[in-house]
Sequence to fold (290 residues):
Amino acid sequence: MKDEESGSRLGSYLRARRELVSPAQAGIPSGGNRRVPGLRREEVALLAGISPDYYLRLERGRDKNPSPQVLEALARVLRLDDVERTYLLGLAAARPRAPRRKRPEHVPERVHALLAHLQIPAFVEGRAFDVLASNPLAVALSPRLRPGQNRLRLLLLDPEEHAFHQDWPKAAADFVAALRTTIGDDTDNPRFVELVGELALSSQRFRILWARHDVRGLDGGTTTVNHPVVGELSLHRDKLPIDDVILVVYYPDKDSDSDEKLRLLGTLSHTASPGTAPDRPADPPSAKTV
Fold:
């Protein structure tokens, strides 16, 4: 992640966000021959109440310690939401740290037991969206939710996963932004470096979204998917941290059409493979460590 080196992360983020704010959004007449997308550097500086030279130093990574007041002014000009503002403040606050020992992501035994009892699609994922364990109904919902799969890689590269999501462009943008949020200042993590490098080479969509420097939480919400057997399903999603991993559950509104379809899917899954235990790798993949 060359753009994630400590001296350039703040500047890269400011530049990317500046290019996404239109003159009209900032209250600036858009006439004239504008050669850059979004706002000019001097326009951002003027609106934030700082000198153009100082803002230039920030974008070029020459000043890594702007005051909180300057950052708050920039967040306002760049129209950052709460998550993006927090991310900006974190970039400026980041300091060199000693390398941390990377521990394999481990699914506690009690979570495997919990997966076996849940009657809704449920699985466990790591920080880089690696699937570490799943129950049969999750696999029935999508066979790509088996342990060893990476959800972001499949979302961007697998045509079946593309068709599965009714609003694929939004799903892709949300996942990429959530990955950047998760990485934070852990930019030397081998798993993150591996995944970002692979997707940067194999997915043009990833390169476009990664260059935007969007940050976003992906904790909960509602999604609509197109299942090849039962059809359209509208499901809520919740993510529950457990130790170093995340339990993800999908569930419909009670007594809704999607609820009926999910029960049918569970019946079909149970008939096809009665007594199936939750999918779990024999040994956590050592390549996918945090």
